[in-house]
Design a protein that fits this description.
single chain, alpha+beta, 35% helix, RNA-binding
RNA sequence: GCCCGGGUAGCUCAGUUGGCAGAGCAGCGCACUCGUAAUGCGCAGGUCAGGAGUUCGAAUCUCCUCUCGGGCUCCA
C-alpha cells in the first residue's frame, strides 16, 4: 500500500478531492493538469488544433494533438510551448468543473471530433452499461474551464488553478495514432514531466541522464561487447570476444541449471519445411512474424520462429509411457522472427534470438506440480542475478487463437492456481496470450523503466491435439499429454541487455570475461605478475596483465573504466612476500599484502557461488 | 510499417551566409620505470552513411535509399 501523505500541492478540484490521495495520485493530478495547460498553450499557438487525449503517465504526462493543415511539431516548438505554458501558469487561471449532459457536450465540442468520439462512447456506455477505461459511463460528462475560455472534456480531478504547477518540462515530441490504431489518423504527441518542486524535477532529469549512461546499447559499444553490422541487417547482432564470453557464461549457467533440474538436452535445426509449421498453426496464425519461405527441392522452407514444433517431433518419434513423464526437453534454441523495423531495440528486441527454451510433456494430473516447480525455477533464476523488481502477468485468450475455449479456460485456471499457491502478485492481461496458449509472463524493467517480458510459461492444450500426441497410461490406454512451454531468461539476448543495464556494466565476477588484471609497478615486476596470471589460469580463472609502459595510475584508471572486478598491483614488497595489492571494484582504498593464493581462492569462491557484488 | 529527430576519424563531438574537413579520447611509434582513476613528444587516422540532383564550387541546399534514436502498433 502506498503511504498517504499530506498533499504537496494543496487541494484538488473535483469530486475525488477528499484528501485521501497517495503521493502518486497527487502527482497524477498535477501531471494531468499540466497536460491540460499544455493543450491550452498549443491551442493558443496553433488555433484550430484538434485535441485527442492527455493523460498522466509514470513520471509525467503526454497530450495527443492533430494540428491544423497536418502541421508537425518540431523539437524547437517545445520551447515555444513551454514559454506559453509558463504564461498560463503565471495567469493563475482557475480550473472550474462543470457537469453537462450529452447534448450540451456535443454542442460545446462541436469542432473537436476526437472529443465528440469520446462523448459518443460515454453515451453508448451509458446505454449498454459497458465499462470504459477513459471515461465514466453515464448520461453526463464533465468538463473543465479555465479563465481565458479554454475548455477541455475531462473526468478530472485537477489542481485548483494553473498557478499550482511548481515545476515541469517538456521532453520530446513523437508520433502516435488516435486510439493507438494505425487505421486511425496519426497524431502529434508531446511528452513532459511535472513535479511538486524544482528540486524534484531536477532530480528526475538527473536520473534520466544517469539511466542513459547504463543503456545496454551504449555499454555494448563502450565495453566492446557486440554490434549490429548494417551489412548483416537490422536486429541481427554480432558478439565480440568479450561480449561472447559473457554470453557463453550465461549459456553455460543455463545448461548447468537445467541438467541439474531434470531437463534433457535436445538440439533442433533452424529451418523446416512448410509442412511442420502448417500443422503447428504457425503458418495460419503467426506468418506475419516469420521470415518468408525459401523454395528448395520443391518444398518451401521457413526459418523457425519457435522451437516448439520441433520439440514435439522429438516427443512423437516413438510411443511414450507414463513412466517417462514429465518429459522436459531443453534447448538453447535460436529462432528468427520478423519484427517490424520500428520496434527493434538493441539486444532487447532483435530478429534472431536464442531462447532458453523447454517444452514439458506431462500427464494431466502432473500439471499443477509441474507448474509450481517451473515457477520456483524462474524465481530462483532471477534471484541469482539479484533481479527482484519484477512483475507477473497472466495473459488470457487472444482474439486470434486455435482450439476450444473450454481448453483455454482449463489452462488459464491452472496457471492462475500456480500463481496463487506460490503467493505471487500478478495482474491479468486480457487477450494477450499466445495464439496457442494462455501464459504467465514475468516482466523486468530496463534502466529507464521500460518493461520487457523475460520469463514465460504457457499451458498448451492445442499443440498436443494438432500433433496427435499420446502416451500409454498405467491403465494401458492411450492418453493425451499436456504440454508446457517455458523460458527462464526469455531470450539470452534480452536477458543480457537487462543484466547489463541492471549492473550498469559492472557484471558479477562470475559473468566477467576477465576476473582480474595484474599491474606490475615497474617492468621488472612483470615476471612475478605473469606467475600470478599463470597460477590463476591453473585454477580455471581468467587474469590478464598490463606491462608498466604507462604510469600505474593511468593503468588503474583504464582497468576501472573497463569495470574489471579486481585490479591486483604488484611491486617490490609483493615480489618479496608473494603477495598482491587488491583494488576491488567499487572501493577506493586498496588492500595491501594479500597472499596470492588467498586472492585466487577468494575470487574462485565468489565465482563458484555466483556471488553478487558484496556477497 | 507509420510519425518526429539524427548519421562528420574506432568513440564523443566542432565545422559560420555553400568556398582547402577539425579537436579531445582511443590506436601506433619513441622516450619515461612509476605503489592505486589520465607521463611527455611524435605519427597515422575521412568516398562527411550511400546514390542522384542544383551550383563555377556541396559535409552544408533538394530528392531517393540505408541505418540509428524517440514514440505508435507488435512482442522473447
Amino acid at each position: 500500500m502506498e503511504e498517504v501523505k499530506p498533499s504537496p500541492i494543496g487541494t484538488i478540484s473535483g469530486p475525488e478531492g477528499d484528501g485521501q490521495q497517495s503521493l502518486e495520485e497527487w502527482r497524477g493530478v498535477l501531471r494531468h493538469s499540466t497536460a491540460h495547460i499544455m493543450a491550452q498553450a498549443v491551442m493558443r499557438l496553433w488555433p484550430g488544433t484538434q485535441l485527442a487525449i492527455g493523460p498522466s503517465i509514470a513520471d509525467g504526462f503526454y497530450y495527443d494533438f492533430k494540428l491544423p493543415n497536418d502541421q508537425r511539431f518540431k523539437e524547437e516548438d517545445l520551447v515555444q510551448i513551454e514559454k506559453e505554458m509558463k504564461k498560463i501558469i503565471k495567469e493563475n487561471q482557475s480550473f472550474v468543473r462543470q457537469e453537462i449532459n450529452i447534448e450540451q457536450a456535443k454542442e460545446v465540442f462541436g469542432d473537436q471530433p476526437f472529443k465528440l468520439e469520446i462523448i459518443d462512447a460515454v453515451e453508448q456506455a451509458g446505454a449498454t452499461g459497458e465499462f470504459l477505461e477513459e471515461v465514466e459511463k453515464g448520461n453526463s460528462v464533465s468538463l473543465y474551464k479555465n479563465g481565458d475560455g479554454f475548455v477541455d472534456l475531462c473526468r478530472g480531478p485537477h489542481v485548483p488553478s494553473t498557478g499550482h504547477i511548481p515545476a515541469f518540462k517538456l521532453l520530446r515530441v513523437a508520433g502516435s495514432y488516435w486510439r493507438g490504431s494505425e487505421a486511425n489518423p496519426s497524431l502529434q504527441r508531446v511528452y513532459g514531466t511535472a513535479w511538486e518542486s524544482k528540486a524534484l524535477l531536477d532530480e528526475h532529469l538527473y536520473r534520466l541522464e544517469e539511466a542513459e549512461k547504463r543503456d545496454h546499447r551504449r555499454l555494448g559499444v563502450e565495453m566492446d561487447l557486440f554490434h549490429f553490422p548494417p551489412e548483416i541487417g537490422s536486429g541481427l547482432a554480432v558478439f565480440h570476444p568479450k561480449g561472447a564470453k559473457i554470453r557463453m557464461l550465461l549459456e553455460d549457467f543455463s545448461r548447468r541449471e537445467h541438467l541439474e533440474n531434470g531437463y534433457e538436452p535436445v538440439w533442433t535445426p533452424h529451418t523446416a519445411k512448410s509442412d511442420l509449421f502448417a500443422i503447428s498453426g504457425h503458418l495460419g496464425w503467426y506468418k506475419e512474424g516469420m521470415y518468408p519461405g525459401m523454395e528448395l527441392d520443391g518444398s518451401t522452407y521457413y526459418l523457425k520462429p519457435m522451437n516448439c514444433p520441433m520439440h514435439v517431433l522429438i516427443y512423437k518419434d516413438r510411443l511414450r509411457s507414463y513412466r517417462e513423464l514429465p518429459l522436459r526437453l531443453y534447448e538453447l534454441g535460436t529462432v528468427y522472427r520478423y519484427e517490424r523495423s520500428g520496434v527493434l531495440h538493441g539486444l532487447a528486441r532483435v530478429r534472431a534470438l536464442t531462447q532458453d527454451d523447454s517444452h514439458i510433456f506431462c500427464a494431466p494430473d502432473q500439471l499443477p506440480q509441474e507448474l509450481a516447480s517451473i515457477l520456483k525455477f524462474i524465481l530462483k533464476t532471477l534471484a541469482t542475478f539479484g533481479l527482484k523488481d519484477f512483475q507477473a502477468e497472466l495473459s488470457t485468450r487472444p482474439e486470434k487463437y486455435v482450439g476450444d475455449p473450454k481448453d483455454w479456460e482449463l489452462a488459464t485456471e491452472a496457471l492462475r492456481d500456480a500463481l496463487i499457491s506460490a503467493g505471487i502478485d500478478y495482474v491479468v492481461s486480457e487477450g494477450d496470450g499466445a495464439f496457442y496458449a494462455p501464459k504467465i509472463d514475468v516482466h523486468l524493467k530496463d534502466a529507464i523503466g521500460r518493461k520487457w517480458q523475460v520469463s514465460t510459461m504457457q499451458v498448451d492444450l492445442q499443440m498436443p491435439k494438432l500433433f496427435d500426441l499420446e502416451f500409454i497410461g498405467k491403465d494401458n490406454e492411450r492418453h493425451q499429454p499436456y504440454m508446457v512451454h517455458r523460458v527462464l531468461f526469455g531470450s539470452v539476448e534480452r536477458f543480457y541487455a537487462i543484466l547489463l543495464e541492471h549492473f550498469a556494466g559492472a557484471m558479477p565476477t562470475w559473468l566477467c570475461p576477465t576476473h582480474a588484471r595484474v599491474l606490475p609497478v615497474r617492468n621488472d615486476h612483470e615476471d612475478y605478475a605473469m606467475e600470478i596470471v599463470a597460477k590463476a589460469k591453473a585454477e580455471g580463472l581468467s587474469f590478464d596483465m598490463e606491462e608498466a609502459n604507462e604510469p600505474l595510475g593511468a593503468r588503474v584508471r583504464k582497468a576501472k573504466l573497463e569495470k574489471l572486478p579486481y585490479i591486483l598491483v604488484v611491486g617490490d614488497q609483493d615480489v618479496e612476500a608473494k603477495t598482491v595489492g587488491v583494488n576491488l571494484r567499487g572501493t577506493n582504498d586498496p588492500e595491501r599484502g594479500v597472499g596470492s593464493g588467498e586472492i585466487i581462492a577468494r575470487i574462485k569462491s565468489e565465482i563458484d557461488r555466483y556471488a553478487l557484488a558484496g556477497e
